[in-house]
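4.2 Preliminary Data

To establish feasibility before requesting continued support, the project team ran the inverse folding procedure on a target of 322 residues. The structure was first converted into the token representation described in Section 3, and no sequence information of any kind was made available to the design step. The complete token record follows.
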């Protein structure tokens, strides 16, 4: 299929976090390799970086004002919130979301866009033959995938990669979500079943280290658990029922043992163990309910998804939601 850059506009959203070693080269290589193929827009969102990333992004905008749009957030809000900030300010027919670490080659961006243009899918996810992350990141991704199968009811063979392409229709639907804890893949899966996938190459991280920590992964999982499913509440009900039944059976067994052997001493140790188990189950259930209630409270208080401190290139862009 021959691409017509006068018709096809591609927006690339990149959340930037402490990527002073990579973002300049990544953007320049994109412009060199993609500008002749598409009408190109690159949306950079600085998610509270503590290095020179913001200064580099501003220089990139000054050098390529017709291509780059830059937003600097007032505080670090996490990858998905930063992506939402970018999606609220894109104008392309197809939108690519990718990281700032060079692990996805530019050639794979072309491959992804081509797949989106040639299909009628609303989203094209990528998957890798071999992921070149640290072991704990791969383990976290595996866990996230298994939980998403239950929570989001996604296709079991679909890997929820952060490197993906979505069309204009789907972006319009996603940005309607204005609550403070977005999970992009949850919003996608609940909106459309026109989902495709392609295999791409995954490279070693060129510089620095991943901005994801175990704490951030847990926070991301909680967003998936509590924002897009009530399954945790149902599981807590099921666990509570099972332990209550176990307690009832144990109580009946104790009564019969006492009748059969009146001299049988009461089990203090077993009583303490049972009490601790029941208390633990109750606290887990209460904690889960508290997580739901807390998120409802923050949503009612209109906690923002993101706050933009600085914006460059806005006057030359048409916001997608308008």
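Position-by-position output of the design step:
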């Amino acid at each position: 299929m021959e691409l017509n850059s006068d018709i096809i506009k591609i927006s690339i959203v990149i959340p930037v976090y402490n990527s002073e070693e990579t973002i300049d080269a990544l953007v320049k290589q994109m412009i060199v390799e993609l500008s002749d193929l598409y009408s190109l827009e690159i949306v950079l969102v600085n998610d509270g970086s503590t290095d020179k990333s913001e200064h580099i992004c501003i220089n990139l905008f000054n050098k390529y004002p017709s291509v780059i749009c830059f937003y600097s957030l007032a505080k670090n809000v996490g990858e998905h919130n930063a992506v939402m900030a970018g999606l609220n300010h894109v104008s392309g027919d197809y939108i690519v979301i990718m990281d700032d670490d060079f692990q996805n080659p530019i050639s794979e961006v072309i491959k992804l866009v081509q797949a989106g243009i040639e299909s009628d899918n609303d989203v094209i996810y990528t998957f890798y033959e071999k992921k070149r992350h640290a072991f704990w990141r791969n383990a976290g991704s595996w866990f996230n995938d298994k939980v998403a199968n239950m929570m989001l009811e996604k296709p079991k063979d679909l890997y929820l990669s952060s490197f993906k392409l979505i069309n204009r229709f789907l972006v319009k639907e996603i940005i309607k979500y204005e609550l403070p804890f977005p999970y992009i893949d949850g919003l996608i899966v609940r909106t459309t079943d026109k989902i495709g996938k392609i295999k791409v190459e995954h490279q070693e991280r060129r510089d620095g280290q991943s901005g994801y920590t175990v704490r951030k992964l847990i926070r991301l999982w909680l967003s998936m658990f509590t924002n897009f499913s009530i399954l945790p509440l149902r599981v807590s009900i099921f666990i509570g029922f099972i332990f209550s039944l176990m307690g009832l059976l144990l109580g009946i067994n104790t009564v019969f043992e006492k009748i059969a052997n009146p001299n049988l001493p009461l089990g203090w140790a077993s009583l303490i163990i049972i009490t601790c188990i029941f208390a633990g189950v109750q606290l887990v259930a209460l904690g889960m309910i508290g997580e739901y209630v807390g998120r409802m409270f923050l949503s009612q208080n209109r906690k923002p998804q993101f706050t933009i401190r600085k914006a460059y290139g806005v006057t030359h862009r048409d916001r997608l939601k308008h």
